[in-house]
Design a protein that fits this description.
The complex is a heterodimer of chains A (121) and B (876). By secondary structure, chain A is an alpha+beta fold. Chain A has helices at 70-79, 83-99, 108-116; strands spanning 10-17, 23-35, 38-51, 54-65. The chains are: A alpha+beta (121), B alpha+beta (876).
């Protein structure tokens, strides 16, 4: 965000069904405004797998991005995920997510991995 | 005001109105009333008492202990019952509650909750995009408990899918197969619909249809449809099955067994048909760059054809009553380019009209159409539809059932009933009621043996309510965020296409080798543990076992869900964040201590360590293969250096623009200019951020650095269509828009300075584009760009063209002829011309009008009412 522009809240989400029709991945970003100059980012990842004919949520996770990461979060908004970040989502994050019981909403290791996505190269 | 909510519920929930059938039916007042309800409903939201946006920051309202008066969710289709029910369910889950204290955290989390709830894919959808814009309104600090309203504007592609799926005609499903699909699952449910309609031939009729779908089996769908009136009857029943193919030329195949009966007047005669049929249909994948899809089908039929000629004389070639047997085949195709679409089909019928098995007649059908949309103003499209049909029946025996001849009018017969693909097999002339364009001679209303018809329909939207409000479309954050999301989609799609390359199969084969070694190690672990080794050995093995199991599971999972991320996680890892899974295993194995007291155990452990060394060797080979295949998504920095070298000038130009942007306060007479300046600033900032990212990534040690640099160069210079424009194009556009507002404020010199920089920007952008056009792309990169370009086109339609409701006057012109003429005065070209109005609800078009018979013969009507209901295929 430009230094002199007011924080404007929004959310964008793109959800995609994989070509094998068995997995859905959703990745979204929310920007909230604590005050006019202080944005707050939420990065979200949802993995759903097809089980017995229907899609079930395996994990829904909300991760708060600290203020120091704002330029990187802003890059996510403006240029999207890089290939390495997508691989990180498909790799360690999905691997960890699949190990958790369905409906898990709080896993410290998964939270840590999702925050690390901004540093992936 | 009409209670639009109850009105819409009564009309939609019971589905008491006629929806699309293959033979369009004329409705009169029901749809006019329905459209009025929808119009009222679209604006019958609870009106805010004092519709003012709260001007303080969010933390101000939390510190001021404001309470939440209302939580309002607004979406273009909020008046629909199912959407309202969804609101109520979602609202109860929000952390922000009516009557409770407002907090910034609950407000932000409520916004994110809505993003998650509305962002979930429904069954059948492949892609869904959601945008949410929250705002606080009606802040009132004058009361004892200060109050505010929290309003969330929600825009999704789901509502459009839901609405069009209600009215979806089977023939439209394949043509829209690339668009977001139907919203709700209807498996294992009987879905009844009652309908009614009117046309001059059938008079008022009532009908019902139902379908039942199940999962699996050769035939998984049954349809029944029956309608009747005092003058007519129709019934149809079918059992069908289908399959979609992921690879290969054929993308879809469908098979059907059916029975059909109809008894329809073709004044002054009556046509009756009864047919049992077995059918097979298919469609290819998209071929080439213009969206060409080929469709084909065949039908084997038997039954009878009868014509009650009611005193009309007959020619010797017309058989009033006959057994019917036929083999039908068709081949057709569609192609799309931008807002233009072409379709063409050829149908061949080999028919029998008697007891003997022989060929009595051969029917040829040609059906072609062209449609195009122009957008002279946003959300006000001009549509042109052209259609040309022709038919010919050849018969050496002269035996052609009357019911198989060509009867024209304002409703067209389908060549093959039950197919998703429509091949129109009769002349369309809208100034005649259904089947009444049938005379080839005096006293011979028996249809023709040949025909041609040509039709033109023009419609221009004159009143509309856009599906996405202007303030959302014009919000710069939308364009910038969409550009980001689409860029990310390109990268994800590249990775996906890489997994379909032959080189990726080599990677999988290498992983299979690795898995074999892992299985050996697993067995060795079991053998060691069975011999009661020392505890430190047990601990070491157990530590390694988890990682070994994870690695084996990950390799097995790749068989059904191949993806590059898992491959990288297994053999490469993520520097500084996460080592590869195989490295975890070999590292764990290295930590297993030897046991010098037991030679046998030591030998087994030695074997495990030896296997670990082999694992590491295979990992290196797999890593090399991974890098080779991953390079299909990479960019050579030399290819974009020329573009990157221009960024110094670009950065200076953007700086100059920033310096010359006037600083104006919000509100007051400068409001329009201030608003545009805010948008300009947003795009200038985004452009500068993109420039910085290019420069930092060109010199980065990140192997993806050049790809990131190219992505940002594309965001700067190319974009993804008007909804996610090139950043530099948006900057120039807003500078252009500022001319008049700044002139009104006597700031012409500031504008001139900005405009000069905009000219520089244009040249730099053109240079960037030229350079990027020369950057070579791998096959996965080309396919990914093509796929995402389609998404950009869909968004373009949604943001710039799609209306929630629209009204368009319509002009129609038809020319048709049936032959051969048997007596003088017949067999000539006949003309019809008329007008009407089209009501559009999202992509559902309902057209009502009247067409005049221009060269009317004695005994013919002045004209005929026209009614049609179609799904506009905007998302080609």
């Amino acid at each position: 965000m430009a230094a002199n522009s007011k924080c404007k809240p929004f959310s964008v989400n793109l959800a995609v069904l994989a070509l094998n029709n068995k997995r859905q991945v959703s990745f979204g970003i929310t920007r909230g405004c604590i005050d006019d100059k202080t944005p707050f980012y939420l990065i979200n990842f949802v993995l759903r797998d097809k089980v017995d004919g229907g899609f079930q949520d395996r994990v829904k996770l909300d991760v708060r991005v600290g203020d120091t990461n704002n330029p990187k979060a802003q890059a996510l908004v403006e240029q999207g995920l890089t290939m390495s970040q997508i691989e990180f989502l498909q790799g360690p994050i999905t691997t960890r997510a699949k190990k958790l019981p369905p409906g898990t909403t709080d896993d410290p290791k998964l939270k840590d991995l999702t925050e690390k996505i901004l540093d992936v190269k | 005001m009409i209670s639009s909510h109850k009105c819409a519920r009564a009309l939609l929930r019971g589905r008491s109105l006629s929806v699309i059938n293959r033979r369009p039916k004329l409705l009169l007042f029901g749809y006019a009333l329905w459209c009025a309800c929808l119009y009222a409903g679209a604006f019958a939201q609870v009106p805010p008492a004092a519709d003012s946006v709260c001007s303080q920051s969010n933390s101000f309202y939390e510190d001021g202990h404001f309470k939440v008066r209302r939580v309002v969710i607004q979406t273009p289709l909020g008046f629909l019952d199912s959407v309202q029910e969804q609101f109520a369910a979602i609202k109860s889950k929000l952390p922000l509650k009516e009557g409770e204290g407002f907090t910034v955290a609950s407000y932000i989390l409520a916004q994110d909750k809505l993003r998650a709830e509305y962002g979930a894919l429904s069954p059948g959808e492949r892609v869904r995009l959601v945008y949410i814009a929250p705002e606080l309104k009606n802040c009132d600090s004058t009361t004892a408990d200060p109050m505010l309203d929290a309003v969330f504007h929600v825009f999704t592609t789901e509502a459009i899918s839901y609405l069009t799926s209600i009215f979806e005609n089977q023939p439209d499903k394949i043509t829209r197969s690339l668009a977001p699909g139907a919203a709700s699952s209807d498996e294992n449910r009987i879905l009844p619909q009652i309908y009614t309609g009117y046309n001059a031939s059938r008079q008022m009729f009532l009908g019902a249809r139902t379908s039942f779908k199940s999962n699996g089996g050769l035939f998984n769908k049954m349809d029944i449809d029956a309608s009747g009136s005092s003058q007519s009857a129709e019934a149809e029943m079918g059992l069908s099955g289908s399959r979609d193919f992921r690879t290969g030329l054929i993308s879809h195949a469908e098979w059907r067994l059916g029975y059909q009966y109809s008894n329809i007047p073709a004044s002054p005669i009556r046509l009756k048909e009864a047919t049992v049929l077995a059918q097979l249909f298919g469609a290819t994948r998209q071929l080439g760059g213009n969206g060409l899809i080929l469709r084909f089908g065949t039908s084997v039929e038997g039954g009878n054809r009868q014509a009650d000629l009611e005193g009309a004389s007959t020619a010797t070639s017309a058989v009033a009553n006959a057994r019917h047997g036929a083999i039908k085949m068709y081949l057709g195709g569609t192609a799309n380019r931008g807002k233009q679409a072409w379709t063409a089909s050829y149908g061949l019928q080999i028919g029998q009209a008697g007891e003997d098995v022989r060929v009595d007649y051969i029917k040829h059908i040609l059906d072609s159409a062209y449609s195009v949309r122009w957008l002279p103003r946003e959300h006000m499209p001009l549509r042109l539809d052209l259609q040309f049909n022709a038919g010919l029946i050849q018969s050496s025996s002269g035996r052609i059932p009357v019911a198989e001849r060509f009867f024209g009018g304002n409703a067209q017969e389908d060549f093959i009933q039950g197919s998703d693909w429509r091949v129109r097999s009769s002349p369309l002339i809208r100034s005649f009621p259904q089947n009444r364009f049938n005379r080839v001679g005096a006293g011979l209303p028996i249809g023709g043996k040949n025909f041609v018809s040509a039709n033109i329909t023009i419609a221009q939207t004159v009143w509309n309510h856009p599906a996405v409000p202007d303030d959302v479309i014009n919000d710069p954050q939308i364009g910038i965020s969409l550009g980001g999301e689409l860029s990310g989609s390109v990268q994800a799609t590249v990775l996906s296409y890489i997994t379909e390359t032959p080189k990726f199969k080599d990677v999988i084969k290498k992983l299979d080798d690795i898995n074999s070694i892992l299985a050996q190690v697993d067995d060795e672990f079991k053998a060691i543990l069975s011999k009661n080794p020392p505890q430190d050995v047990v601990d070491g093995i157990e530590g390694a076992q988890d990682d070994l199991d994870d690695t084996k599971d990950a390799i097995v999972a790749l068989k059904t869900s191949p993806d590059m991320g898992q491959v990288r996680a297994i053999v490469v890892g993520f520097e500084g964040l996460s080592p590869s899974l195989i490295e975890n295993v070999t590292s764990d194995i290295a930590d297993i201590p030897a046991d010098s007291t037991n030679a046998d155990l030591d030998a087994q452990l030695e074997k495990v360590h030896s296997d670990a060394a082999r694992l590491e060797s295979l990992r290196s080979e797999a890593q090399k293969l991974y890098k080779e295949v991953r390079s299909l998504g990479s960019v050579d920095p030399k290819d974009i250096k020329e573009a990157a070298d221009k960024l110094g000038d670009l950065s200076k130009t953007l700086d100059e623009i920033r310096k010359h942007i006037p600083q104006l306060p919000a509100g007051g007479p400068e409001e329009k200019a201030a608003g545009l300046i805010g948008k300009l600033n947003a795009f200038v900032s985004a452009s500068m951020n993109a420039v910085n990212r290019v420069q930092s990534n060109m010199n980065s040690s990140d192997p993806d650095g050049p790809v990131i640099a190219k992505t940002n160069l594309e965001l700067l210079s190319e974009g993804y269509g008007p909804s996610a424009p090139a950043l530099l194009s948006a900057v120039q556009s807003y500078i252009g828009d500022l001319r008049s507002p700044l002139a009104e404020l006597h700031l012409e010199s500031e504008w001139e300075a900005l405009n000069a920089q905009a000219g520089q920007l244009k040249n730099l952008q053109a240079a960037l584009r030229d350079t990027l056009a020369r950057v070579p792309m791998s096959e996965p990169q080309k396919k990914a760009r093509s796929d995402v370009a389609y998404t950009g086109r869909v968004l373009d339609v949604v943001f710039r063209e799609l209306n929630l409701i629209a009204v368009s006057p319509v002009v129609m012109f038809d020319a048709a002829r049936i032959g051969p003429k048997i007596s003088t005065g017949f067999g000539n070209m006949r003309y019809g011309m008329g007008g009407g109005v089209r009501f559009s609800l999202v992509t559902l078009d309902v057209t009502l009008g009247y067409s005049f018979n221009l060269n009317r013969h004695q005994g013919e009507g002045r004209g005929a009412f026209v009614f049609s209901m179609d799904i506009a295929d905007l998302f080609r």
